[in-house]
Amino acid sequence: MNLKPVAHVFYLQDAKDLVGAGLAGLVHAIRDGPVDDELIAAMKKGGAWQAASTLARELSVFVYAKPTPFLDDPFFARAAPPEVRTVLKSEAFQKRIASDHLYARYPEFLETAKNNLKRLADAGIRYGMGTDSGPPGRLQGGFEHLEMELMVSAGLTPSQVITASTRSNAEFLGASRDLGTLEVGKWADLVVLNANPLDKITNTRTIERVYVAGKRAER
After folding, report:
1. Which residue ranges form the domains of the chain, and what is each CATH number?
2. Do the Cβ atoms of 65 and 98 come closer than 8 Å?
């Protein structure tokens, strides 16, 4: 087996210690402050990735404290049962989110995460896309698209984000022989869109058809 060690991180010093010990990938972004040259050098030396910055996760811990427009968006509505959306939109849930003792700092952590992703990318550190979706407030199937939007808002281009979400993810997972790009002999997993995501990353939501292993999937 060729398993890659990854770790959930928050603090810069933890990231340095883990990368120095041979970590293959950081899961979540560093959020206690800016990444520095020391970490970048260590990641380059060891080939460590920013495996996923999970920006959508950072948004989810504070966004529901107020009415959240994307919960009424039909695209995102498909990612969560009505009863889940009812809870997320409720006044009680809003108060619960707003009462978190770190609530006022969560937007700051998100901005730090975005800035650090951009700096690592600019420095040539490999990175992928991931959301930490699964819990009720992180809408699996919808948050992947929100993550890509947040990555663009961090300063990456739509092309960079799409590459991170497809080819780069497959390469990090050691699955690029079968996945990640459209090439002869691969699985032919793809989506057909009604608008060009290179023009606007939210065009990834204009899904017309989905193919898995070359076969059209029912939606």
Report:
1. 6-181 (3.20.20.140)
2. yes
Joined tokens for residue 14: 């933890």
State pTM to two decimals: 0.95
Residue 170 CA to residue 208 CA, distance in Å, equals 24
Residue with tokens 């590459």: 163
Q: Which residues pair with 27 in a beta bridge?
A: 8, 52
How many other C-beta atoms are found inside a 10 Å radius of the C-beta of residue 134? 11
Nearest alpha-carbon partner for 102 in 195, 24, 32: 32
**pLDDT tens-digit series, residues 185-204:** 999 999 999 999 999 999 99
Longest dimension (CA), the chain: 53
Rg (the chain; Cα; Å): 18
Bridge partners, residue 156, by sequence: none
Q: How far, CA to CA in Å, does 166 sit from each of 43, 62, 94, 161, 200? A: 22, 28, 34, 9, 17
CA 23 to chain centre: 19
Residue 85 CA to residue 87 CA, distance in Å, equals 5
Q: Could you report the per-residue pLDDT of 78-105, keeping only the tens digit for each?
A: 888 899 999 999 999 999 999 999 999 9
Cβ atoms of 88 and 71 closer than 8 Å: yes
